[in-house]
Amino acid sequence: MELYQHFRKEEEAFIDQVLSWREQVERTYQPKVTDFLDPREQQLVTMLIATKDSDVNLLFNGGHDFVERKRAVLGPFYEDLQQVDAGLTLLEGHYPTKFVDLSHRDVMGACLSLGLKRKILGDIVVGNGRVQLVVASEIAPYVITHLTSIKNTSMRLRERPLNDLDIKQPVWKELETTVSSLRLDVIVKEIYRLPRKEATDYIKKLLVKVNYKPVDDVAFTLQAGDILSVRGMGRSKLVEVRGRSKKDKLKVTLARLQ
């Protein structure tokens, strides 16, 4: 299929799913609310749905302007998607910072240990003795009932209004530079200022993610818009490829989350 030529091989199954959502809306004239999508998946949905000749409207909602994970709402072109319930519930609990230090990974691990899938969980905010997590409304009662401890610390979750979600606007520091290629090891080395061997080791140990999925291939070719993370070193992205320099190197804009 010619459409697949514009995307990576590993994205084909998701593309098929998005096309099936579009077909469902076109056939039934009923809105469709998806599971939570990461930013790369949101980008793919936008590319496939929000075309100039599309009869399907698209809206993303994660409970806050600055969240990363959002549910897509698809509907007929005449539908006001702002009025469609995206099925978002904010849960909040507290813990004593004097005795325990919780992290995003701790909360995520506790959720996954209950058998919850990542796709029904939105953003998670942890800090200052408070845990906030956005979940699909249909599983909120289950989470409240069963997520009663995190890292051996008792937790009592309650529903809160979505506008209580405490997320700060992300700040990205950009860097314009030149690189020999768009290989993953080259870009990781450049963004995180690492020796090439150390960048390679991080990748081979599955400590590097591209678009939220671990990648162990040092020669993996990146594209503009790809989001990277290195465990313990934060998040970054390849913002733009601006052409070639006089020395035939690639001119790129990189960014690192502050």
Automatic annotation (TrEMBL):
Residues 182-244 form the RNA-binding S4 domain. SMART domains: S4 (SM00363). The keyword RNA-binding applies. Keywords: RNA-binding. The keyword Chaperone does not apply. SUPFAM superfamilies: Alpha-L RNA-binding motif (SSF55174). CDD domains: S4. It holds the Pfam family YlmH_1st. One of its GO terms (molecular function) is RNA binding. Signal peptide: none annotated. InterPro entries: Nucleotide-bd_a/b_plait_sf, RqcP2_N, RqcP2_RBD, S4_RNA-bd. PROSITE patterns: S4. This is RNA-binding protein S4. It comes from Virgibacillus pantothenticus.
